[in-house]
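thread: overnight batch results

M.L. [08:02]
morning all. the overnight job finished for the chain we discussed friday. pasting input first so we're all looking at the same thing
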Amino acid sequence: MPPGPWTREQLLGLCATNPEQVVDLTFALVARVEQLAQEIEDLRRQVNQNSRNSSKPPSSDGYGKPAPKSLREKSGKSSGGQPGHPGHRLKMVAEPDHVVQHTPESCRHCGCALAQEVSTSHERRQVSDLVVRMEVTEHQAHSVRCPDCGTVNVGAFPPGITQPTQYGPDIKAFITYCDTYQLLPSERVCEMVYDLTGHALSEGTLYNANEKLYGALASYEAQVQEQLRAASVAHFDESGLRVQGKLHWLHSASTVLLTHYTVHARRGQEGIDAGGILPGFTGTAVHDGWLPYRLYTRCQHALCNAHHERELQAVLDNDDQDWARDLREHLHTIKAAVDQAAAAGRISLDEQTLKEFAAGYDAIIRRGLEANPVPERTTPGKRGRAKKTKTRNLLERLDQYRDDVLRFMYDFRVPYTNNQGERDIRMTKVQQKVSGTFRSLDGAKIFCRIRGYISTVRKHGLPVLAQIRAALEGHPFMPSV
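M.L. [08:03]
and the structure it wrote out:
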């Protein structure tokens, strides 16, 4: 029998002479059809993925897909500043650096000279501008001979003044600020310094400044790790980071006032442990559904419902199942009730409301499970369980970890989403887009510690540049407990 394709006559002949081979062929064709149908379904879902129904960033949507649309509901407020907002404007200063007098030289009516006349009044207008130049301070250590014993005494240079020529803390703080906060590549930082001051600063000087700041922040980092371990609620996230062209992982741990980053070659438990926070954490860890977080059993867990909303949107886009819309609306209803109770000064919902919300959640999940049964293997001879659909896997996860999904309902300190963790990790992704990869693992570690310090400083409402300078002088900002 030829391998195929077959003619009608060949198949009829095969049925008459070898029916068992026809049965085997039929099963093989059915299995192949099932495999191709699953591949088509997987590809269709993959093509339909965008930033609204998956964890893909908006930048990956491209122009061919719908414009990114937030899943957040509108607040009803108009855009721009809200009533009562203080606003910002340039104010006059009492003591300007320079005063320029503008006095009329002659009368515009009769031409009489006015140079010797006294001003009767004046109008003030101030122009604020930026003046950038390199200021050089020379230190001179003098030698003086004692008139009594003849000993030559040499004056001491201030601490830190060790070279014939060197850069001071202000320029070091500025270039570190540009590199690690504004995320300018090192070459462009050097170009900017040259354009502003005429000094050809090297990339090695920038690296040395960052390395010095990294060392100065060791005590700061230890204190932040200790405070994060003691936090009642902390956010955890991870994202890919390129180091020497190879994939590494950035692990973040944060609260509304603290940020800590770790870079490691591993994404899983080894990388998380290297951060030194989650292994000793006993509060509530807010994160996405990535399984390795479940290895830490000393703490409670809360799942990010922004991830769930995107997955529910994918169910609506691909399968159009009503339970997904109902569950999303139910979660919004619970969140609104929690927000209203918290605004009223309450610390929890009443027991009856909690029971009703939990029962409603369970009822929707049961509907979803009934609409998405576990698939049965239809091809004889194949071992193992049939592959579950993504929708079925989502439902089982929402069912198994229902308490973690609804943690925000039981504990008002726990937020509805892990947006805090995702915001804290977002700018490091911008750095990767700008610079592509770190040249060394040490450089990545230096960036992570400094960037965590900058994030913490910003969360406390402090000026970043001034706090970088303070750290370089040995006085880093230390967040209070």
